Amino acid sequence: MQPDLNYLMRQALDEAIKGLSEGEVPVGAVLANLDGNILARAHNQPIALHDPSGHAEILALRRAGSVLKNYRLSDTILVVTIEPCLMCMAAAISARINRLVFGAPDPRAGAAGSVYDIASDERLNHRIEVISGVMEDECRILMQDFFLARRGKGQIQ
Protein backbone atom coordinates (compact mmCIF):
# COMPACT_ATOMS: atom_id res chain seq x y z
CA MET A 1 0.00 0.00 0.00
CA GLN A 2 1.34 3.42 -0.97
CA PRO A 3 1.30 5.99 1.84
CA ASP A 4 -0.71 9.18 1.40
CA LEU A 5 2.07 11.73 0.97
CA ASN A 6 -0.32 14.68 1.19
CA TYR A 7 -1.59 13.43 4.57
CA LEU A 8 1.97 13.01 5.83
CA MET A 9 2.94 16.46 4.58
CA ARG A 10 -0.13 17.98 6.28
CA GLN A 11 1.15 16.44 9.53
CA ALA A 12 4.59 17.92 8.90
CA LEU A 13 2.98 21.31 8.20
CA ASP A 14 1.08 21.07 11.50
CA GLU A 15 4.43 20.55 13.21
CA ALA A 16 5.91 23.54 11.37
CA ILE A 17 3.02 25.69 12.61
CA LYS A 18 3.74 24.54 16.18
CA GLY A 19 7.32 25.68 15.73
CA LEU A 20 6.12 29.00 14.35
CA SER A 21 3.97 29.54 17.44
CA GLU A 22 7.08 28.97 19.57
CA GLY A 23 9.16 31.51 17.65
CA GLU A 24 11.15 28.93 15.71
CA VAL A 25 11.73 28.83 11.96
CA PRO A 26 8.64 26.92 10.76
CA VAL A 27 9.97 23.58 9.58
CA GLY A 28 8.17 20.36 10.44
CA ALA A 29 8.97 16.71 9.90
CA VAL A 30 7.37 13.31 10.35
CA LEU A 31 8.93 9.90 10.01
CA ALA A 32 6.62 7.11 8.89
CA ASN A 33 6.95 3.45 8.01
CA LEU A 34 6.40 2.40 4.40
CA ASP A 35 2.68 1.91 5.08
CA GLY A 36 2.40 5.55 6.16
CA ASN A 37 2.05 4.98 9.90
CA ILE A 38 3.74 7.86 11.70
CA LEU A 39 6.53 6.80 14.05
CA ALA A 40 7.70 10.27 15.11
CA ARG A 41 7.02 13.94 14.50
CA ALA A 42 8.95 17.11 15.31
CA HIS A 43 9.44 20.76 14.50
CA ASN A 44 12.49 23.00 14.59
CA GLN A 45 13.64 23.73 18.15
CA PRO A 46 17.22 24.99 18.09
CA ILE A 47 16.24 28.12 20.02
CA ALA A 48 14.18 26.34 22.68
CA LEU A 49 16.70 23.53 23.10
CA HIS A 50 19.79 25.77 22.82
CA ASP A 51 20.97 23.21 20.29
CA PRO A 52 22.26 23.97 16.80
CA SER A 53 21.28 20.44 15.77
CA GLY A 54 17.68 20.93 16.92
CA HIS A 55 16.29 20.75 13.39
CA ALA A 56 12.94 19.05 12.82
CA GLU A 57 14.52 16.21 10.84
CA ILE A 58 17.13 15.42 13.49
CA LEU A 59 14.56 15.48 16.28
CA ALA A 60 12.17 13.22 14.34
CA LEU A 61 14.99 10.75 13.61
CA ARG A 62 16.00 10.70 17.28
CA ARG A 63 12.43 10.12 18.42
CA ALA A 64 11.88 7.35 15.90
CA GLY A 65 15.11 5.67 16.97
CA SER A 66 13.83 5.65 20.53
CA VAL A 67 10.45 4.26 19.46
CA LEU A 68 12.01 1.52 17.33
CA LYS A 69 14.89 0.91 19.74
CA ASN A 70 17.27 1.06 16.79
CA TYR A 71 19.55 3.64 15.22
CA ARG A 72 18.86 2.12 11.80
CA LEU A 73 15.57 3.44 10.49
CA SER A 74 15.29 1.23 7.42
CA ASP A 75 11.94 0.99 5.68
CA THR A 76 10.95 4.52 6.64
CA ILE A 77 9.94 7.74 4.93
CA LEU A 78 11.07 11.15 6.18
CA VAL A 79 8.58 13.88 5.24
CA VAL A 80 9.77 17.48 5.69
CA THR A 81 8.23 20.81 4.76
CA ILE A 82 11.51 22.26 3.45
CA GLU A 83 14.42 20.54 1.70
CA PRO A 84 16.88 19.33 4.35
CA CYS A 85 20.29 20.88 4.94
CA LEU A 86 23.62 19.00 4.82
CA MET A 87 23.47 18.06 8.51
CA CYS A 88 19.97 16.62 8.23
CA MET A 89 20.72 14.74 5.01
CA ALA A 90 23.82 13.22 6.59
CA ALA A 91 21.72 12.05 9.54
CA ALA A 92 19.07 10.59 7.20
CA ILE A 93 21.73 8.69 5.28
CA SER A 94 23.30 7.42 8.50
CA ALA A 95 19.86 6.28 9.67
CA ARG A 96 19.33 4.44 6.36
CA ILE A 97 15.90 5.89 5.62
CA ASN A 98 14.43 4.72 2.31
CA ARG A 99 12.69 7.83 1.07
CA LEU A 100 12.77 11.57 1.64
CA VAL A 101 9.72 13.62 0.74
CA PHE A 102 9.89 17.40 0.96
CA GLY A 103 7.63 20.28 0.09
CA ALA A 104 9.64 23.32 -0.96
CA PRO A 105 13.24 23.45 -2.13
CA ASP A 106 15.86 25.42 -0.23
CA PRO A 107 17.92 27.22 -2.88
CA ARG A 108 20.42 28.45 -0.27
CA ALA A 109 21.19 25.33 1.76
CA GLY A 110 19.24 22.40 0.31
CA ALA A 111 21.15 19.13 0.24
CA ALA A 112 18.63 16.94 -1.60
CA GLY A 113 19.09 18.41 -5.06
CA SER A 114 19.03 22.22 -4.85
CA VAL A 115 22.56 23.13 -3.75
CA TYR A 116 23.91 19.65 -3.03
CA ASP A 117 22.62 16.22 -4.00
CA ILE A 118 23.77 14.10 -1.09
CA ALA A 119 20.88 11.63 -1.39
CA SER A 120 22.17 10.15 -4.65
CA ASP A 121 25.92 10.56 -4.17
CA GLU A 122 27.37 7.21 -5.27
CA ARG A 123 30.44 7.70 -3.08
CA LEU A 124 28.28 7.16 0.00
CA ASN A 125 27.22 3.76 1.28
CA HIS A 126 23.48 4.52 1.18
CA ARG A 127 21.24 6.41 -1.22
CA ILE A 128 17.78 7.81 -0.57
CA GLU A 129 14.91 8.12 -2.99
CA VAL A 130 13.81 11.78 -3.08
CA ILE A 131 10.34 13.06 -3.90
CA SER A 132 10.03 16.84 -3.96
CA GLY A 133 7.20 19.30 -4.45
CA VAL A 134 4.54 17.69 -2.24
CA MET A 135 2.28 20.58 -1.15
CA GLU A 136 5.10 22.86 -2.27
CA ASP A 137 3.08 26.07 -2.34
CA GLU A 138 1.83 25.70 1.24
CA CYS A 139 5.31 24.89 2.52
CA ARG A 140 6.98 27.73 0.63
CA ILE A 141 4.38 30.33 1.60
CA LEU A 142 4.66 29.44 5.30
CA MET A 143 8.43 29.95 5.17
CA GLN A 144 8.25 33.12 3.06
CA ASP A 145 5.63 34.68 5.31
CA PHE A 146 7.75 33.87 8.37
CA PHE A 147 10.81 35.64 6.99
CA LEU A 148 8.80 38.59 5.66
CA ALA A 149 7.25 39.08 9.11
CA ARG A 150 10.65 38.71 10.78
CA ARG A 151 12.01 41.47 8.56
CA GLY A 152 8.97 43.65 9.35
CA LYS A 153 7.62 43.47 5.80
CA GLY A 154 4.49 41.47 6.41
CA GLN A 155 2.37 39.42 8.75
CA ILE A 156 2.02 35.71 9.07
CA GLN A 157 -1.47 34.61 8.12
Structural summary, described in words:
This protein has 157 residues and is an alpha/beta fold. The protein has helices at 5-21, 46-49, 56-68, 86-95, 136-150; strands at residues 28-33, 38-43, 76-82, 99-104, 129-132. The chain has a five-stranded mixed sheet.
The structure class reads alpha/beta
Strand portion, in percent? 15-25%
Number of strands: 5
Relative helix content: 25-40%
What is the general shape? globular
The ordered H/E elements are HEEHHEHEEH
Mean pLDDT: 95
Helix count, DSSP H or I runs of 4 or more residues? 5
Secondary structure layout:
Blueprint: H1 5-21, E1 28-33, E2 38-43, H2 46-49, H3 56-68, E3 76-82, H4 86-95, E4 99-104, E5 129-132, H5 136-150
Parallel strand pairs: 3-4, 4-5
Antiparallel strand pairs: 1-2, 1-3
What brief labels describe this structure?
157 residues, alpha/beta, 5-stranded mixed β-sheet, 5 helices
Short summary:
This protein has helices spanning 5-21, 46-49, 56-68, 86-95, 136-150; strands at 28-33, 38-43, 76-82, 99-104, 129-132. With 157 residues, it is an alpha/beta fold. The chain has a 5-stranded mixed β-sheet with strand order 2-1-3-4-5.
